[in-house]
């Protein structure tokens, strides 16, 4: 497996890189779960156009269709109840709602951990908070992404939006890189733990040993 190859390569070159790696580990173990959901937290859309609301996730585990779970919900404000408009039951299932009719479509790709949706002919009444939540067992942590959608009737002046997009893109890019790095480190660490366990007591099934070495919160739910 390439994760363990990576690990061995790292182990042979100790010294400085080991120090950096352990600093990173200490930093990430406390703050990172193995499930990360990446969204654009604020989206502005022009009335009447189609808007894409993206949501992707990273996980140490390949998606198992029989255990995977996902929900998309909408709430007008924080005070309102969440209204589910899409879910996953062996496949993506849109739930018809009065608000969206058939304007909401799945636009992601499960093979790429992409759960994005589009809303066509977006209305002022579509403004609100969109949430995607993901469960990818045996990952014990449930992932959540929250997107605030605003609908405008006029685009802001082009110069401002260009700057905003440039700044947003570079911040977003860096954030994605940081998250990716942290997830890889976490996954490597997890696999190392597995190797240790399997060396000691040969050997339990992968899915079972996986979940047991947690420093992260979360309850066993298998
Ligand atoms: C939004 O767009 C629809 C159709 O494109 C139009 O009928 C409606 O007046 C627009 N609403 C506003 C507030 O501009
Ligand atoms: C939500 O409810 C609280 C009190 O119940 C209220 O103070 C607040 O203004 C409400 N927020 C919105 C956005 O309606
Ligand atoms: C989706 O919603 C259902 C029903 O409310 C709930 O039982 C399930 O845990 C939710 N799944 C996720 C991944 O949030």
What would you say this structure looks like, in words?
By secondary structure, the protein is an alpha+beta fold. The protein has a domain at 36-152: Immunoglobulins (Immunoglobulin-like, Sandwich), CATH 2.60.40. 34% of the residues lie in helices and 25% in strands. It is built from 4 helices and 11 strands. The strands form 3 sheets. The chain has a 6-stranded mixed beta sheet with strand order 2-11-10-5-6-7, with no helix packed on it. The chain has a 3-stranded antiparallel beta sheet with strand order 3-9-8, with no helix packed on it. A two-stranded antiparallel sheet has the order 1-4. Helix 1 (2-12) crosses helix 3 (158-200) and helix 2 (16-31) crosses helix 3 (158-200). The longest helix has 43 residues, at 158-200. Bound molecules: 2-acetamido-2-deoxy-beta-D-glucopyranose (3 copies).
Q: Oligomeric state of the chains?
A: single chain
Pick out the low-confidence regions: 1-31, 203-222
Pattern of helices and strands: HHEEEEEEEEEEEHH
The CATH H-level homologous superfamily of one domain: Immunoglobulins
From the N-terminal CA to the C-terminal CA, the straight-line distance is 25 Å
Average pLDDT rating: 77
């Amino acid at each position: 497996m390439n994760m363990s190859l990576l690990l061995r390569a790292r182990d042979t070159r100790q010294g400085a890189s080991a120090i950096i790696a352990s600093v990173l580990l200490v930093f990430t173990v406390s703050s990172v779960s193995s499930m990360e959901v990446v969204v654009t937290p604020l989206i502005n859309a022009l009335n009447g156009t189609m808007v894409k609301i993206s949501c992707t996730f990273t996980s140490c585990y390949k998606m198992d269709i029989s255990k995977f779970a996902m929900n998309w919900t909408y709430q007008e404000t924080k005070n309102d109840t969440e209204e589910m408009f899409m879910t996953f039951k062996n496949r993506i299932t849109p739930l018809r709602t009065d608000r969206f009719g058939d304007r909401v479509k799945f636009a992601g790709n499960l093979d790429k951990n992409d759960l994005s949706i589009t809303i066509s002919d977006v209305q002022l009444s579509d403004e609100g908070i969109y949430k995607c939540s993901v469960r990818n067992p045996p990952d014990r942590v449930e992932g959540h992404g929250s997107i605030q959608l605003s609908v405008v009737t006029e685009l802001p002046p082009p110069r401002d939006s260009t700057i905003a997009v440039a700044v947003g893109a570079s911040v977003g890019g860096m954030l994605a890189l940081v998250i990716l790095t942290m997830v890889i480190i976490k996954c490597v660490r997890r696999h190392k733990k597995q190797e240790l366990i399997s060396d000691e007591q040969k050997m339990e099934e992968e899915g079972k040993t996986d979940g047991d070495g947690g420093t992260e919160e979360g309850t066993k739910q298998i």
